[in-house]
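User: Please run a holo structure prediction.
Assistant: Happy to. Please share the sequence and the ligand.
User: Here you go; the ligand is iron/sulfur cluster.
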Amino acid sequence: MNYIFGPVPSRRLGRSLGIDPTPPADPLSLARVGPYDRPRAPKACNWNCVYCQLGPTRPFTRSRSLFFPPEALFAELREAMDSGLTDGVDWITFVGSGEPTLNKDLGVLIDGVKAVSQIQIAVITNGSLLSFPEVRLELLGADAVMPTLDAGSPSLFRRINRPPSEFGFERHVEGLTAFRRAYTGKLWLEVMLVAGLNDGEAALRDLAASIDRVAPDEVHLVLPTRPPSEAWVHPACEAAILRTKEILSSVARVILPDERHGGFGNAWEEDHFATATSIVERHPMSLGELRTALVNWGAADPDSIIRELVSLGKAIKVEHGGETFLRGRR
Ligand code: SF4
């Protein structure tokens, strides 16, 4: 399973089957096959957010490339559907080891998935490449697009999302605004609320002004509850969340962070170890979540699988917020 992972429970999307359009490179393989010239980095992204659950971005991936032949994903999806993996899935979500729009084939992938499945398609993106007309065009086929807007000023944008200089704040907001004008699906802006960074009144008023320009259908507040790239990052407190809702509600419908729902679905195959590996590589899980998922999949001894993930170097243990998480080794 190279491109599909999950299903994973998502706070906003119920049970979500993930498609990773920028899968981690095999560090042992330096060969480039045909036009598939994907960068040999474990995480392909053009931002380096302080809260990133995939760890630091090293190096930046600054331009789009071809990552794999689309037919390879379509074959995997057909296999997943035949084996019942998509049963009960609410959304197929393009998300994974970095920024999905860095894959030049994203439009082909979305159209190909739509051709074989009735399930709604979401794309979780930082939105930085929406300033390119071709990227806006490719995303028109998705049922929901969820771009990031964490800040309402250039300086705070640089502090939180830490992009290279060519991906500036104005370009970002203009890209989002241009996409909104063309897109008739659900545009759900995602705001990660980080304590002490973007949860103060002045920062929130700036953010409200930028959100007003974009005019999304909804604004989803999310919290850095999984291990962040920077250890000093903490979720905003309850009072700050309420302040945020009050200020941002003047310009958009605001959805609060809530308890996750959906639950882990069927395992991909009998190989619970492989299934768990493919998820934690892209989506860190607490030990409790992983144990529950393995039990649901029918694993006889979940703790031995968890031990093996660590001892074989597939994942590392990370402490965050008083919990232990397993995260892919990067
Ligand atoms: S959170 Fe998303 S946009 Fe930010 S560095 Fe991580 S993968 Fe990139």
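Residues 4-255 form a domain with the TIM Barrel fold (CATH 3.20.20.70).
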